[in-house]
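Notebook entry, structure prediction.
Reason for the run: the old model in the group folder had no record of what sequence produced it. Starting over properly, with the input documented here first.
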Amino acid sequence: MITRARILEQAARLRAGFEAAGAQGVETPILQPAETLLDLYGEDIRARAYVTSDALRGEQMLRPDFTVPVVQKHMEHGAEPARYTYAGEVFRRQEHDPDRANEYIQVGYEVFDRTNPAAADAEVFALIAQALDGLALRAATGDIGILMAAVEGLKTTEPRKAALMRHIWRPRRFRALLDRYAGRTTVPPARAALLAESEPLADGAPEIGKRSRAEVEARIEVLRADAAAAPISDNEMAGLDALLSVRETMPYALEHLRDIAVDLPQITPALDRLEARIAALRARGINVDRLDFEASYGRTSMEYYDGFVFGFYAERRPDLPPIATGGRYDALTRRLGNGAEIPAVGGVLRPGLMLLLAEAET
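New structure, fully documented this time:
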């Protein structure tokens, strides 16, 4: 029987292993200020976090993960380079999947080091893989930074690129925006009628809702500017479609992406980083020739990842969530560092699931 005591023992062993690798143990409060998380993720975070309130401290959230508080702690007091490990409960609402745990133990390892990002990526992945050794798991990897670079280099308007960047972690919305900006979808009749009027608010229509008249007028101007913009070219759309469909082992994925870079040259620096990561993983003893790479991987995870992403899955138990996940989150350190920043990458494991799989395989 997998008891809480056994899970805590497993978590302690994992944390001790990371400490032996050079990490400093840290603790973070279970209650986190909601303002910080809402500022980072918007109101969407409420759908997956438990929110409460305090008369003195305001709105609070039960810790949805450790990364944000660890980054805050490092940006306030940490030296460089730094490595941290932690273990404790995290809380996630599971209203759409009641069979999944809404409270579980998580163990993590985080690296803040600007000297060699590729080596840091490989270090985290290799240590997580080592901790999972003996379990029948499939590893998947990706790189959000490649898609972000592709979007940033599109020959379209800045507002369009900003909207696409905002929705990279919402694949359906991202695709709908892409198709709209490429002229592949028709303009809704109501919007077309609105934009056809020279003065749509001239008839004294009542002001309904929280937006002021000035805000509505500004929004109409944004829609007019977007309607006047040229569509994203077929060539760029073909490149994006090809990029999003890449799913191969790492070396072949890089080769395929190099071909795509002929049409999307803006992704070349990101591909150079991928190539360096492949070399660093090889140096760590990882068999990259059998390591899967999916260009779309990680787009439904927490929205702070902006580079390398990875996960480990029990293919014989598709009902289980990932046993371990991680990735690079350089931009998060910038947002929480008041202008300061440092490249950072980390990963987390679920010791309870590790015990479950170990028992099933014996």
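Summary: DSSP finds 14 helices and twelve strands in the chain.
The old model has been moved to the deprecated folder.
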